[in-house]
Amino acid sequence: MQHRTASARRARRLTLAGAAGLVAAAAATAIACNTAGTGPAAHAAAVSYDPLAPALGFNSFVEDRTVLASTESEGPVATGGDLVLDGYYNVMIHPVGSYTAPGDTVPSALVVGGEVDFGGGEPGSVAKVLSGGYVKIGDTSGVSVLTTDQNNASVNTQVVPAGGAYNSTPRIELNSKEPADAVAQAPIDFGAAFAELRANAAALAVCEANEVRMVDEGLQTVPKGGVQPNQRISIQGMDPNRTNVLNVTGEDLNDLSELVYLLQPTESGPLLINVDTSGTGGEMDWFVKNQPGAGGILGAPYILWNFGETTRLTLTGGDSLEGSVLAPDADYTDLSPSNVEGQIIAKNASHGTVRANGGEIHHAPFGSTLACEDGDQTTPASTTPSDVTNSIQSETPSGDGPSGGSEGPSTGDSTGGGSEGPSNGDRTGGSDGSHGDGHGSDDLATTGASMRPLLFVAVALLAVGGAVVALTYARRSTRS
């Protein structure tokens, strides 16, 4: 009896060992298959990134033409095309520039990818570049860069029409002594930057995050497109620890009397507002309404207005606009004397006109990251500031240059880099092999090869487990 009991105990131990081997083998096989892409699909992971990283911290970042008429930008200004002076404008009145061109030790306050069109605006126009910032001009063929005055005395740098005298108008005047040869350069790849910004705007338009609601004064839900004229609207459902998304139409924003933030957006709980202007043909004249609860300069860095498919956006008046504007395909015009608390991203921009005094652009750059579900939807490629900078590339293949190939640049410090960055708008990756849907052929080949050792282990464990179980039953049958 004692002998049988000991034998039974041994049999149970062998049986348990065999079962454990089978379980471990099954688990290893499941992990291997799932990692290789042959098992059940895992739930989509949230991709967190700064969608305005390609704008390099500029208060106004424009792809083509910029007109400076009135009044001022607290931070730096960059335009990929020509610059027109059409009034009196102050640039970077506070020392907040975060972008420094290659070879410089001083931040760039005004970057012009094309030329300065001195003939396109008012003859007496002046742009003052303050806080010791530098000026960069891609095409200096029509200007003179002066570092001395008529008496040949060393003075603060000025840019005037070719052949013009010091202090003549129109002019760009610095409050620092920038060397003349440092002015003539185009350090930013605006094409790469705007390819990325457009991809980001498209991805944000379908961002799957915590969708918040518009409610009326009776706290009844108001659907997108359902705001009535002069209706007071509140934003309900904000999560302080997640990306929040509000979907509205341009008509909603013009119809409401106030947009009340019941909870102020924060770095950990930013708010993305997707504005659909398809009902007005992609164009919008916006009389900005009061936004109580947004927090002014405290909440504005965590609000992003996405006008991804808008082709014309004009601020006609009203209150200050709280937050940054992402409108990469829009002709943007500011006719409102009220302020913008954030960044302006546009295709073309007019900051004021001869007849209308535009408001100030306060330096409240977007200061958070947005996390959208990275599943079947298009996800953005990520960018580093260096990837949209035309710096000298030493011993670097052309595919790793400023644009990162045709698909846009790699991730910035807010988004992570390499394979962690999401893909560009067309769901194809660059040289790092990242793909929007996560199923590129190169990725599968690499993943399959890297999983072979684990698959071999799984097969071995299955064999050992099966052998142990068979031996157990054979011994029990012999002893019984």
TrEMBL record:
Residues 377-393 have a biased composition (Polar residues). This is Choice-of-anchor A family protein. It comes from Glycomyces terrestris. It holds the Pfam family pAdhesive_15. Residues 356-445 are annotated as: Disordered. Residues 1-32 form the signal peptide. The chain crosses the membrane at residues 454-474. Keywords: Membrane, Signal, Transmembrane, Transmembrane helix. It comes from the Bacteria. Residues 51-363 form the Choice-of-anchor A domain.
